[in-house]
């Protein structure tokens, strides 16, 4: 049974058990599984209401659209997208109700994608509040930010785009450049505390989806202010220790050949120091992994010299990623999304009461020292080479 089929059955079972099926025949039910919020194009805006207009795209499925093995090769879409524009989410839902005899039911919503143009202008907290009140969305709903139009993510070339977004988003254990999942509940709690956030960003091209960056949300105003690229996402994950797997690539300092390091674990600690008016941090990153691949033509992976060179190469790459990320966050965006402020709050609670009022400024001026340790503990098949080096 495919992943899409399993996810649908889980949604369907919950729908039945919660008793929400008794007002319609089961075959007529439509479950909203994905949604996208965008800023409407100028041509679709209503006069004198440009500031309040929102474009909503809902993706739903019904039991009659359930994917099965017999559907393989069938080009008929297994989902339906509804699109509307209005002053509020509630107004758009009312329009949807006139087009469909089954009103939107958001408690099965799995993913919400917000377009960058809308998020640059609108407060995310207000957007989620409007959405949650109208559809009663669960805290477990996954949030994503789209580079470009969010609606395009619900039109990618897969059986059911919303399920594809969920599946890729949950693959963080296999990639170092995927952020931990941000849910509706997690974002709501962060915004209630005026915290900055980094949310996984996606883009579409030629009907395909790519998870390739992180959207930076400024606390308080809760708007999109910038992005981290793929390397900087890896660096951020290193800083927070939120890495469950993935590959780091380095160059052998002697032969310049490719070395691929498979991450097994990362431990990160951020220690603050306040001396007078001077704020500084010591960052310790310790990673253990295995040599997954190397481009060195001849070498003995069991050789201490080769292992040492491998660890040096990955350490150098890790430091590059960390420095690039810190430059982006500290000097360019001046935005702490890595938990530096939280460590100050823990270690210096009295000083934090003063610093927190303008924390991003103090963060941007702090000095930071890195200490990176890489340990290769496994050598894969390459370790069998016995040519001395």
TrEMBL record:
Q: Does the keyword Signal apply?
A: yes
- State if GTP-binding is listed as a keyword: no
Pfam families reported in the protein's UniProt record? Spore_GerAC, Spore_GerAC_N
Which UniProt key words apply to this protein? Germination, Lipoprotein, Membrane, Palmitate, Signal
Q: Which GO terms describe its biological process?
A: spore germination
Query: Residue limits of the Spore germination GerAC-like C-terminal domain?
Result: 214-378
- Stored InterPro entries: GerAC_N, Spore_GerAC-like, Spore_GerAC-like_C, Spore_GerAC_C_sf
Q: Topologically, how does it sit relative to the membrane? A: Lipid-anchor
Q: Major place of localization?
A: membrane
Q: Where in the cell is it found?
A: Membrane
Q: Got a GO cellular component term for this one?
A: membrane
Q: Which domain of life is it from?
A: Bacteria
Domain Spore germination protein N-terminal intervals: 22-199
UniProt lists the family membership as follows:
Belongs to the GerABKC lipoprotein family.
The name of this protein is Ger(X)C family spore germination protein
Recorded source organism is: Shimazuella alba
């Amino acid at each position: 049974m495919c992943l899409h089929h399993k996810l649908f059955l889980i949604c369907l079972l919950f729908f039945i058990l919660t008793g929400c099926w008794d007002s319609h025949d089961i075959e007529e039910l439509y479950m909203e599984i994905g949604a996208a919020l965008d800023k409407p194009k100028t041509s679709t805006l209503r006069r004198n209401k440009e500031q309040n207009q929102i474009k909503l795209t809902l993706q739903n499925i019904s039991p009659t659209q359930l994917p099965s093995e017999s559907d393989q090769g069938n080009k008929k879409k297994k989902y339906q997208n509804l699109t509307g524009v209005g002053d509020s989410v509630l107004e758009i839902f009312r329009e949807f109700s006139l087009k469909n005899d089954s009103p939107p039911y958001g408690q099965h919503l799995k993913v919400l994608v917000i377009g960058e143009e809308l998020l640059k202008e609108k407060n995310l907290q207000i957007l989620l509040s409007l959405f949650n009140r109208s559809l009663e969305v669960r805290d477990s709903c996954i949030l994503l930010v789209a580079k470009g139009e969010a609606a395009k993510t619900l039109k990618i070339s897969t059986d059911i785009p919303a399920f594809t977004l969920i599946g890729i988003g949950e693959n963080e254990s296999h990639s170092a450049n995927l952020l931990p999942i941000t849910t509706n509940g997690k974002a709501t709690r962060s915004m209630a505390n005026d915290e900055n956030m980094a949310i996984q960003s996606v883009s579409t091209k030629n009907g395909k989806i790519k998870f390739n960056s992180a959207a930076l949300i400024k606390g308080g105003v809760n708007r999109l202010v910038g992005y981290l690229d793929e390397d900087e996402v890896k660096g951020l994950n290193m800083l927070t220790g939120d890495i469950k797997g993935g590959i780091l690539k380095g160059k052998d300092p002697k032969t310049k050949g490719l070395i691929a390091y498979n991450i097994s674990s990362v431990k990160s600690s951020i220690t603050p120091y306040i001396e007078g008016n001077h704020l500084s941090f010591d960052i310790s990153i310790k990673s253990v992994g295995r040599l997954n691949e190397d481009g060195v033509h001849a070498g003995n992976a069991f050789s201490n010299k080769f292992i040492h060179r491998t660890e040096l190469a990955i350490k150098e790459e890790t430091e590059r990623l960390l420095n690039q990320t810190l430059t982006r966050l500290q000097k360019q965006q001046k935005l702490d999304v890595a938990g530096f402020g939280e460590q100050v709050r823990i270690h210096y609670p009295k000083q934090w009461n003063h610093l927190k009022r303008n924390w991003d400024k103090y963060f941007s001026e702090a000095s930071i020292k890195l200490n990176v340790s890489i340990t290769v503990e496994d050598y894969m098949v390459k370790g069998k080479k016995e040519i001395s080096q």
